[in-house]
Amino acid sequence: xxxxxxxxxxxxxxxxxxxxxxxxxxxxxxxxxxxxxxxxxxxxxxxxxxxxxxxxxxxxxxxxxxxxxxxxxxxxxxxxxxxxxxxxxxxxxxxxxxxxxxxxxxxx
Amino acid sequence: xxxxxxxxxxxxxxxxxxxxxxxxxxxxxxxxxxxxxxxxxxxxxxxxxxxxxxxxxxxxxxxxxxxxxxxxxxxxxxxxxxxxxxxxxxxxxxxxxxxxxxxxxxxxxxxxxxxxxxx
Lengths: 108, 119
Hints:
Largest sheet of chain B: 7 strands, mixed
Structural class of chain A: mainly beta
Shape of chain A: globular
Distance between the termini of chain B: 39 Å
Strand content of chain B: over 45%
Order of helices and strands of chain B: EEEEEEEEEEE
Number of helices of chain A: 0
Distance between the termini of chain A: 35 Å
Strand content of chain A: over 45%
Oligomer: heterodimer
Structural class of chain B: mainly beta
């Protein structure tokens, strides 16, 4: 099973600033990585797939990068609605596909 | 657009079977792969398994001996059964699908339903 490790566990950033979230895979997963945003009481929302492709309707301030074992989700010009928990998920190695433990993005 | 809604008992006794339904609206269940994913308190997300509308399934090896996922194409829903539950199965259970991806990543999720295992 591929272990996904996200860092930091909590990130405090001021609105309008940039947030950089990291995700590391225990073995190479090529570009087979997705990012999700999750707010309490809501369904998780797909942000990025293929490591860097934004899902339908996702604002351009969300961007993904990386390959192999190291990945980054960058959110520029943070809006109030961006404060949430973010998860990465690998879909290279079946089965199961695995998620990171999440990064909580909070308002500084 | 496809929407999903989980339903089922919020409380299950230890050793009994957890049964949940995911109702599919806004589209036919006769395409795509349909997944169950859960989040235990204080833990991350765990993929339970998925089913294709044809009935073929794939389960998380850690749960395979206890899980059964089925689909009812006539009534547009799919189900999760998890037997011999323990407190470790207490979680927020989501159904999800990958309209754009199959079973690789999920672009449609339900809001989730909480299941507590307790006597």
